[in-house]
Amino acid sequence: MIDTHCHLTSKVFRGRETEVVDAAAAAGVSRMISIAVGSGDAKAALALAEADPRVFCSAGVHPLHSDEAIDWDDLRRVGTSPRCVAWGELGLDRHYTRPDPDTQRRVLDAQLEHIVAWTAEGLGKSVVVHSRKAVAELLPILDASGLPPERFVFHCFTEGPEDAQRVLDFGAWISFTGVLTFANAPEVAESARLVPIERVMVETDSPYLSPEPHRKVRPNEPRYVVAVAERLAEIHGLTPPELEARLDANAERFFGLPSDGHA
Ligand SMILES: [Zn+2]
After folding, report:
1. Which domain CATH number covers 151?
2. Distance 29 CA to ligand 1 centre (A)
3. Statement: residue 78 has pLDDT above 60
4. What is the Å distance from ligand 1's center to 249 Cα?
5. 206 CA to middle of ligand 1, Å?
6. Rg (CA), the chain
């Protein structure tokens, strides 16, 4: 399996990154994408990806880091590496008011402008979107960028079916974390029921959001993505191996990962 969204550069993993990746591999999670939250973090994520063939990375600025210094040249440079398979995560977080909404929006707009320019120079990639209480606000912004809708994934989807339908109507993908396994989030399971298998992915967003039955384990790790896939399989009435093969193919297609030929 592939954990399509984790944060291996998080300080809670410092010094034991290889141990975490080994533990994932032992659990059948053979590859993972370490998602960047800022330009310095993108360089750190690339360093991990260059050192370990099981790790890929992204380059982008998380909305909750949009008040930190951004080196656009660094982001672009990370994006030139074949180990960097996505732009982002970028977006809007309307749950938190810091950084303030205007700052988040300004950095989102600047980031999309850069991505459009980088795409024009041959650095086109899929885009990982962080959206919290912001689907209706974000969709017109993403649409106005002119980037193809099917290149966006709304990661860590925690909204209900109405927002899920909006994302699907737009044409983007949806990715689920351990929140899908939480008994107190039935609306997320409702959303998962709506998403066609060919447009869904799973992730841990580790070190956050440990899925059931590991919810009390901290930090969350890429190996637990298996529990998210099991819950999604249950929702769709598939066996976990059937769904996992589909999820792998989806992640390979969406991020342009090399197919590693296993089911
Ligand atoms: Zn994340």
Report:
1. 3.20.20.140
2. 18
3. yes
4. 21
5. 8
6. 17
Residue 76 lies in a domain: yes
Distance of CA 162 from the midpoint of ligand 1 (Å):
23
CA distances from 227 to 74, 212, 213 (A): 35, 7, 8
- SS3 of residue 204 by DSSP: coil
Mean pLDDT for all residues in the chain: 96
Q: How many domains does the chain have?
A: 1
pLDDT for residue 261: 55
Query: Are 178 and 227 spatial neighbours (Cβ–Cβ below 8 Å)?
Result: yes
CA 45/CA 55 separation, integer angstroms: 9
The sign of the CA dihedral 12, 76, 85, 156 is: positive
In a domain, 263, yes or no: no
Instruction: Indicate the pTM of the whole model.
Output: 0.97
Task: Convert the pLDDT of each residue in 192-239 to its tens digit.
Answer: 999 999 999 999 999 998 999 999 899 999 999 999 999 999 999 999
* Spatial distance between the Cα atoms of 102 and 67, rounded to a whole number of angstroms: 10
